[in-house]
Structure formats: structure tokens, C-alpha cells
User: What shape does this take?
Amino acid sequence: MDLSVNICGVELKNPITTASGTFGFGHEYGQFFDLSMLGGVGVKGLTPTERLGNPAPRIAETPMGILNCVGLQNPGIDKFIEEQIPFLRQYDTKIIANVSGNTVEEYCGMIEKISDADVDLIEMNISCPNVKCGGMAFGTQVDMVEEVVSAAKKYAKKPLIVKLSPNVTDIAEIARAAVASGADALSLINTLLGMRIDIDSRKPILSNIMGGMSGPAVFPVAVRMVYQVRKAVDVPIIGMGGIRNGRDIVEMMLAGADAVAMGTVMFADPMAPVKALDELKEYMKKHGIEKVTELTGAVKI
Assistant: This one.
């Protein structure tokens, strides 16, 4: 049974990675299982300097999911390179460094710096607000996608994965723009924009008023968008959004994903990726599948 997948020339031992923003840098989860069991580790979103994030409350429960406005809390890219990469290199897994910026210049600077570090893949989060264009997210308009991806690609010495926002009218159009501008691979979906209100105080629950919704409730949206993007472009896709178990992984891959990322489920069950890997193996054995890559895009329409 062959579980390996290839993302832009980087071979992952299996298609399971962790979603940026949910896994930190692996320290906590390393207490529960050997991180070498993962195909790859998507680390916390990195910014040029340390960020403390938004004030509490910054997590709110929703039916079958959560809202968050954590605000990219992280130690900054330099401390990540100095302190976290050596820790992660103890494990036999690939490192996916996620970078976030508020200007094109910030993205370019971080990608140039992280390209020289010991990481395997670079994931570029374009759901961030473009402060020079009134705060609208880079990933929501074709012209902004083209501008930031084409600029960043010039500095990327490692494969560049562009992480797409679902908060758009036409995800396929955004995907095509990212690939045409130099994206080597795509990851999707990022969180959906949501809001909760405390009906007693009549105030928003989150300090930031709105936040990103993740968890099982978004899974059907993620499957739909991965399917649409797979039909639109011919680059590797990492599918994410509400994946809980092996069956969800199979479904996401049938829609068109080459690999997947698990995130929110691990808050409730840190062992979820390990269980999902076993379930994926069981499915493949039951259905006589020799290579996991046979699943990608194999949905019957």
C-alpha cells in the first residue's frame, strides 16, 4: 500500500498535514503522538515581527464548529527560523511554513527570508487585509491576487502554495489567477467569515466582532470549492476545512485534493490525525486501492 503523495516535487509519506493556525509549532501535539506520523506540518501563520493577536474573547462556539479572531498570534518569522525549525527537524515530516502580510512588500520580504531557511514548502495566506487598499483581503479580487502572487513568486526558492479564501463569489476564477501568477500549488479553504451575538448583553461575542468559522460545518463548502478548483487548474491541491476522519479525507481527495490538512478537530481530539490515517488505510484495503493517489479527482459525475 503506497500512501505517499508528491506536492511540487516534495514527497510526503502520506497525504495528511496540519492546518496552519491550529497546530502551533507542534510542541503540544508532540506530547500525544509522534509527529513523524504526519505527511507534513503546517505551522502557525508567520508575520514579519511578533504579534500578540487580538484581545479576548477571541473564540466562540458555533454549531459543529468554532469562530476565531485570534489575529495571527506568533513569535515572528526570525524566532520561528531560530527556535522552531530545529525542533520540528527532530521529526521525519515535511515543514510547511505559512506566511501572512499586510502589504505586498511584507509578503516579498518574508518569502525571501523563509526561502533560505530549512523548510520544505511555503504556504502564502492571501486572506490577509491589504492595508494599502482599504483593508480588503488580498485573496478576494483577481487583480490583487495577481499582484501579490506574481511579486512574491520572484522571491520564492521553495515551492509556493497559495492559500485561498472562500469569501469570494467565484473560487475558480481566483484559483486561475493565482496559478497564472506563479502559484505552484493551492490550499483551500481558509475560514468562512462569521459572527455570533450574546442575546443577553446584545453585544458581539468576539472582541473583533467577526471571525473565521472552521470545523465540520464548513466541510461541504470546502469539498465543493476543491471540486471547482480541481476542474479549473492543474496544480497540486491541499484540501482543508472541517476534515474529521479518514472518510472525510477520502471524500476531499475524490473531489480533487492531492493532500489534506486537519485542524479544528484536533482541539477536541489531539489524536484525530493518527486515527484518520488508520481509517484511510482501512478504506484503501477494503476497496483494493494500492496507491492513495488513485483517489484524487476520482469522483464519478
Observations:
- The mean pLDDT is 96.
- The domain at 5-295 is CATH 3.20.20.70 (TIM Barrel).
- The two ends are 27 Å apart (CA to CA).
